[in-house]
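Shapes recur. One chain:

:::
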Amino acid sequence: MKHFYRLIGLCVVILSGMAPARADVTLPSVLGDHMVLQRGQDVPVWGRAEPGETVTVTFADQRAAATADEQGRWRVTLAPMEASKTPRTMTIAGHNTLTLRDILVGEVWVCSGQSNMQWPVLRSNDAEAEIAAADYPQIRLFNAARTVSDAPAFTIKGQWAPCSPQSVRAFSAVGYFFGRDLYDALDVPIGLINTSWGGTPAEAWTSAEALGAHEETAVLLDQWEKRLADYPRVLAEWKKAREAEEQGQPSVPAFHKDPGNEGVKQGFAAPDFDDAQWADAKLPGAWEESGQDFDGVVWYRKRVELPAGMVGQDLTLRLGTIDDFDTTYVNGQQIGSTTDGNAWMTPRRYTVPAELTRDGVVTLAVRVFDHFGAGGFTGPPSDMRLEGPDGASVPLAGAWKMHVAQRLPNAVGPNNNQRNRRPPRGPDSPHRPANLYNGMIQPFVPFAIRGAIWYQGESNAGRFDQYRVLLPAMIGDWRNAWGQGEFPFGIVQLANFKAASDRPSDTAWARLREAQDHTAQTTPNAGLAVIIDIGEADDIHPRNKQDVGKRLARWALADVYGRSVVKSGPRFTRAQVGGDKITLHFDQTADGLTTTDGHPPAEFTIAGADGRFVWADARIDGDTVVVWSADVPEPKYVRYAWADNPDRVNLVNSEQLPAAPFRTDTFPMGSGPR
């Protein structure tokens, strides 16, 4: 009999194992203990359960139920609520019951972007004092794990935590300082979601559907399709190089420091070399923009006929920024080379001796070596020119010849540091279009939010024209996903960075800032935080994140919450040409224009119809600035703070907020003054 009951028990176990398992109700991580729910609007609560199961949500005297669909998805919507500092509990009941505790109602903001948004409080100015003072239990922080996905993700690793010295240390400094200022002004709970990843481009934060809807951004999908098709070969080469290095063999020679390379031996720099079989190239432009996705060596050549006034003269050759290294030749003679660690952000300027210009024709040859990331000519078109001693110049942007002399596995370069040991970018790369949208934005949709703040652009600076389309497309993509209408979107404009220039310039970073400003001005319910005065020449990550957060908060308090605060520094509105001067009009002047140092406004340049800019004199006249130069008797265009690092910016309003960079010469995308 004992064996009979054992047999019955065994059958019960087997049969119970064969019965279909019931799926527990599960929630995305953003719905959890300590969260803040958005006040004043519908609040979605969603998750997964057994198909057909009824799930009931109870919170703050509200009760709502939904039935899971065939995929097990369910969603309820709670009615709008007033702000509440009183901790409350939410229950979600189905096959199982989940209890979420310590929930507040207030204002919720998404904080996203690349490294300057990711930058933590512990690495910012006055870090220890800021951390010690960060006792704000009604500010709640959600730090999202850096995650990629090739499909929209349901959840992400992370959890809400009350703001404390412990939780704030690794949290976004810009996000925290922004939220703290909002809390001080609004006196309601603040929820901050930090979903950011250093070094990432905007296309990674945008869905494939949104990218494919625009000709300018659809090319990014095509480029990555080609990259992924070639990925197995590139990965194999990378592994082979790493194995060789581990065995003590050099993986690649230091091409960028080898003036006697094979290209020179083959005559690539010689004026009489026949380059008819070389490919056509349009400069400037990064290799990746033309579908050339590799690291290695590319030679460029161009034959230039000189105007009479430049024949037999010392000339200045300007090529803009080149990523990473170059060696440049004129008529077969090396005239310059840039190979230091910051070469990628150094505008090239070389002297062409008179002995090379006597024939009236020069052949330019530029050998470019790229060992990581993007490669090629990355400055604006107007930065590429030959200049004579009398100010005459010959534009060099446009048609060149090019030859790929050496292809290396991606991320395998001559400097065998940790960066170059990273595997090539493949399907799980955070640079791949839509990977971060899927992995780090979708897990928060449709959590009710007030808006988003965005600090990014450094990784897209070489593609500033494309960014004018890409950033608005990304904003519209997020708004479409959330389904909350045109929620507020605050953009941090790039800070001043790199070496200051002693002459008027037109750079990729200036153009990228213009793209950010253009987006803020043309996208409904968007704003711009100008930080052109708080950057650091030698650090792409300025430590003063307090002012970044404060300026974002000013915009939000004014435009989103209707508070009577000055939201920004002076903004250019129109220019009036009169005689030999141009008068510039501004709004957002508060109680008037002034300068931070008591000196006349600096960093203005002026040009006539020829578009040749020179430094300008300037003076403040009420809410206007009058600009002129003795060298430009008939001025037409003005620029302000138009450089990578305009380190003398001093024009502010009475609130000491900086004027936004601008230019009055507006050209089609991809072009510039000649």
Summary: The two ends are 102 Å apart (CA to CA). Residues 569-674 form one domain. Confidence is low (pLDDT under 50) at residues 1-20, 411-420, 667-674. DSSP finds twelve helices and 35 strands in the chain.
